Amino acid sequence: MVKVRAARPAEAEALTGLVMRSKAHWGYDAAFLASCAAELRIRPDEVTARRIVVAEDPEGTVLGLASLEGGAPLATLGLLFVEPSAIGQGVGRILYRDVLRRAVQQGVRRLVIDSDPHAAGFYRAMGAVAASASPAGLPGALVRFEAAPAPLADWARAWTGGGRAVHVGNVAEFNAQFGDSSLDREQSAAHHYSCLAAFYSPYPSALVLPRAVPAGWTELVCRQLGWTGVEVYDGLVERGPGLVEAVRARPALAARLTGAGEPLVPWGLTRPFGLLAGRPWRAGELRYESKAAAHGLFGRILAEGGHPGIVLPAQVRAAGRWAAARLLAARARAGESTVLKSEHGVGGSGTTVVTARQVRAAGGARALLRRLPRGPLLVEEFVDGPADPGAARDLTYDGFVDPAGRVHEVGAALMDVTAGAYRGATVGPGAVPDWAEKPLLAFGAAVGRGLAASGYRGWFDVDFVVDAEGRLAPTETNLRLTGPSIAFMVAARLDALRGAGHLVRIADRVELGARLPEAQLDELCADLARGCAELGAVFVPAIPTGAFDPAPWMGVLVAARSLETLDAAEALVRSEAAAVGAMFDAFEPADRPPGPARGAGGRP
Q1: Residue 221 CB-density burial (10 A; 0-12 exposed, 13-18 middle, 19+ buried)
Q2: CB-neighbour burial class of residue 575 (10 A; exposed 0-12, middle 13-18, buried 19+)
Q3: Which pTM value belongs to this model?
Q4: What is the C-alpha radius of gyration for the chain, rounded to an integer number of angstroms?
Q5: Which residues contact 411 (CB under 8 A, 6 or more apart)?
Q6: What is the mean pLDDT of residues 367-389?
Q7: Kind and range of the H or E run holding 535
Q8: Alpha-carbon span 70 to 48, nearest angstrom
């Protein structure tokens, strides 16, 4: 493993030699190198003043060096050179990230980089932003970049105490405790979404997953997000919701996960998780996961006043299925659309939007209801959206209640929702319209205080739709992690790793043109990572296991510093994913390996 340490004055001459060899690697002639020699020379008395560090291998061989020069708030990356034999092995990435880390510690908020043109692609891939034009007086063909060093967000430090965490992918277990008829009994989708456990905090120490995941996936995720030493325990549950019970049935594994003193972070709270984590289980703590209970909480908050621009859709709990049919029929006769909801449900499961035309086409409300999942139904007023089809429609607030009952604001996100089903979300600067942010954050915080008063401790969100008059209508709370929360975690990590200002988009389902063998999936993801980097974006595969389904897909995260680049990166990912099947046209799906072998164990 490469380690970074402070350079020593006695190494000045050797480090100068490394710099010159690194510069010569790019094919410069002797005359040019001689002209640079004085500028690139490192003198013993400069080593400390220029804050020079070196990267060395386990045998103590120096592989590269970097300097952080100047003081807060403006500093310069004066040197970053890698021994030619080590170029392409990640040494430059380690040194650059160390410079950003030290810059944050010293209060630097703007880091200037004057790059050799051959290194411009490296700095762009590391997240530095090229100046629109190189300033006058910049020597030679140097290219100016800037970065904005940023500390880990306050909320992210509060979430896990500023350290690493063990992530427990108990999605199926969380869903199963509600027994909602709209949820898949086998919880197959939940096992795919358990892969999001990789992103339950900005920096995990271990992942605990029900099904086996490709080794190449975890390696790429770790590389993209600068993680090291992440242990993976997968293949613990082939089917069913019993992930935590499977961990508790392995005393050595349970002791390893709980004995390091690191927080355990689940998708959502359950009784088995409480036993594993030593956390008291309070059955009523999740009462507002109910859509009806959440609606009541929203109503009480609005009755107290202080939330202009927030309206609450009318909701009626039908006494039975035929009562729901009568309510639906009455609304259809009035030409009104209706939202039918199950008491619980995830990702749009159990939520159906019904228009008056659909009721007529089905032959009446009763005939239509026969096609829907059985169980309690909530009949809710449909909120007409803005006339502009490009206007923001679905928004969400994310926050959490810490163990002391304090509410922490994480932020607002723009969701992609189609026919009532969640498809993804975008977080970051400018993702949510300015007009919506203040009232959304204020109402979300009020919901958080209500949850805290009820005894809830953990992550939550509040979902909203925008009505035709530009008002926000809250529709539900989720007392668990969600897709948008994953995007917030990744944004916090990338801001700390690459500099502030990342937008992050999570797309739940990107269709693949073929059911890929594991090696080809790894190759596709590596290609997408390179392609996005060329655009100035970051690609992170979020859900790999869907690639082995009969109708293959994967979940992805893309990040960039502008919406235009983010859109371009998503378009690239979707296009390349759809086209990937061409090479397999000669093979039948049954001839292809279905994915990773099943098995339990730890993997560094």
Answers
A1: buried
A2: exposed
A3: 0.91
A4: 27
A5: 397, 398, 427, 441, 488
A6: 84
A7: helix 518-535
A8: 12
